[in-house]
Automatic annotation (TrEMBL):
GO terms for molecular function: cysteine-type endopeptidase activity. Residues 5-131 form the Caspase family p20 domain. Signal peptide: none annotated. Residues 178-240 form the Caspase family p10 domain. One of its GO terms (biological process) is proteolysis. This is CASP3 protein. SUPFAM superfamilies: Caspase-like. PANTHER family: CASPASE 14, APOPTOSIS-RELATED CYSTEINE PEPTIDASE, MUCOSA ASSOCIATED LYMPHOID TISSUE LYMPHOMA TRANSLOCATION PROTEIN 1/PARACASPASE.
Length: 241
């Protein structure tokens, strides 16, 4: 009896950046490498076949997703991208932009039939602008703050979920200990909440980041509001291994 195919995970983390002439451009992303390694280990423990890639150029990033179209996949495809970014864009280590819509086009039903019916789940740790979120004090009857939420509607393939570290136009924070967003994801993957349906799991991450986390150092006290968009038609449990 043949073994079922493993679900696949592609983790891309860019920490060092340069331009075409070799000059430094964006700042070094300290803490991101170790964070990505921990997430890869957590996914491996959940029976994912994980491909962890460091410091890839814009073209190499596109090529990695092209390669996934030729792989054998299990029930789910998960991808984590950790890099510098702007709204709708993440940057390769060569400081060249990759439009997220380009990645989604590569994985569309027309260009990637093998992933047509398989849920595709993205977690994107990158800035979406330069605004700083100072946070707000929320009054409620329970005495506990409740996070607001926001969904940015993108052109995404069928059966796809995309979760962003922050809302459109805002900064996503990272320090030497890691990012608020991916640390919250790691906490969920390593805890009992991993058994939740994906939409509930992501809402828990929203709450954890928005309510329990704040930036340190230069931006001490600033907040972050993750958000996600989904066109799944049913509940899925991708991490309930």
């Amino acid at each position: 009896m043949s073994q079922p195919r493993q679900s696949r995970a592609l983790v891309i983390v860019n920490t060092h950046f340069h331009s075409g002439d070799g000059d430094m451009t964006f700042g070094t992303r300290k803490g991101a490498k170790r964070e990505a390694e921990k997430l890869s280990t957590a996914l491996s423990r959940l029976n994912y076949e994980v491909k962890l890639m460091h410091n890839k150029t814009a073209k190499e990033i596109e090529d990695l997703y092209q390669q996934e179209c030729r792989r054998e996949h299990g029930e789910y495809f998960v991808s984590i991208i950790s890099s510098h970014g702007e709204e709708g864009v993440i940057f390769g280590c060569d400081s060249e932009p990759v439009k997220l819509t380009r990645i989604f086009q590569i994985l569309s039903s027309k260009k990637c039939p093998v992933l047509t019916k398989i849920p595709k789940i993205f977690f994107i740790q990158a800035c979406r602008g330069r605004e700083l979120d100072q946070g707000v004090v929320v009054e409620c009857d329970s005495g506990k703050p409740k996070p607001d939420s926001f969904s940015d509607y993108l052109s995404i393939p069928p059966q796809t979920v995309v979760m962003f570290a922050c809302s459109p136009g805002y900064v996503a924070f990272l320090n030497i200990s890691g990012s608020m967003f991916l640390q919250a994801l790691l906490k969920v993957l390593e805890g009992e909440e991993r058994h939740l349906a994906l939409n509930r799991l992501m809402t828990r991450i929203n709450w954890e980041v928005a309510v329990c986390c704040q930036a340190r150092g230069t931006y001490e006290g600033c907040k972050e509001m993750p958000c996600f968009v989904t066109n799944l038609l049913q509940e899925v449990f991708p991490f309930s291994a």
